Amino acid sequence: MITIVPASLKDTEILALLGRLTYSESHGHFINNKEDLFKYNNEAFSIEKTKKELQNSNNLYWIAYVDKLPVGYAKLVLNTNNIQVDSKKQCRLERIYVLQEFLGKKVGYELYTTVFNNSKELGFKQLWLTTYIKNENAIQFYKKLGFEIVGDYEFMVNGKAFENLVFSKKINS
Ligand SMILES: CC(C)(COP(=O)(O)OP(=O)(O)OC[C@H]1O[C@@H](n2cnc3c(N)ncnc32)[C@H](O)[C@@H]1OP(=O)(O)O)[C@@H](O)C(=O)NCCC(=O)NCCS
């Protein structure tokens, strides 16, 4: 059974570890230099950074559990505007990641639904996100959910640029 639970400071270690594992599983093969990946993970998913992000009230996290095991998470960032998105009331689905072994079992859909419903309840009009141009799984997933490409964006990993697409979806209220 899939359960989606809001995350708080007590979940720091789970989020840091899930963040690191799911990023390596899904993006590790795109990064040729494994040292770059290791450095990125150390910085992006350190306990300290994860704690700080959880303490920022603009960040909302959820953890997905399958039979009580944490297998995925999502991070929603409130009030973060992208000029390529058509609204002043925007929020960003910054991360939605599921462990490889649990892909294709609707965990991503349950996380997304929670994020979307919360964005709506909070009065946002557009939900946007970015994804790597070669991340075909995520691109198919977002298209299926009704997101449209509205622009592009360069994502940096240790000084190296990776071309990303910006997707957005209107939130009807
Ligand atoms: C993107 C991601 C979150 C999707 O989660 P998931 O649990 O595998 O997807 P779900 O099982 O909930 O699928 C939901 C719908 O999307 C579709 N979908 C998911 N992955 C798909 C793929 N690779 N190709 C086509 N459709 C796909 C499913 O078929 C399903 O549609 P259906 O209800 O009609 O069957 C997951 O692939 C993931 O974590 N990837 C690695 C991390 C990542 O790249 N995150 C995004 C970073 S921007």
Poorly predicted segments: none
CATH superfamily: Gcn5-related N-acetyltransferase (GNAT)
- As laid out across the biggest beta sheet, the strand order is 1-2-3-4-5-7-6
Q: Work out the helix count.
A: 5
At CATH level 3, the topology is: Aminopeptidase
Q: Which series of helices and strands comes N to C? A: EHHHEEEHEHEE
> Kindly, what is the distance between the CA atoms of the first and last residues, rounded to a whole number of angstroms?
30 Å
The second-level CATH architecture is: 3-Layer(aba) Sandwich
Bound molecules: coenzyme A
Q: Tell me about the biggest sheet?
A: 7 strands, mixed
Mean pLDDT rating: 96
Structural commentary:
The chain has a single domain, classed as 3-Layer(aba) Sandwich (Aminopeptidase). 35% of the residues lie in helices and 35% in strands. The model has no long low-confidence stretch (mean pLDDT 96). The chain contains 5 helices and 7 strands. The protein is globular and about 45 Å long. Helix 4 links the parallel strand 4 (90-98) and strand 5 (126-132). The chain has a 7-stranded mixed beta sheet, with helices on both faces. The two termini are 30 Å apart. The protein has helices at residues 12-27, 34-44, 47-55, 107-121, 136-144, and strands spanning 2-6, 59-66, 69-78, 90-98, 126-132, 148-157, 160-170. It is of the alpha+beta class and 173 residues long. The chain binds coenzyme A (COA).
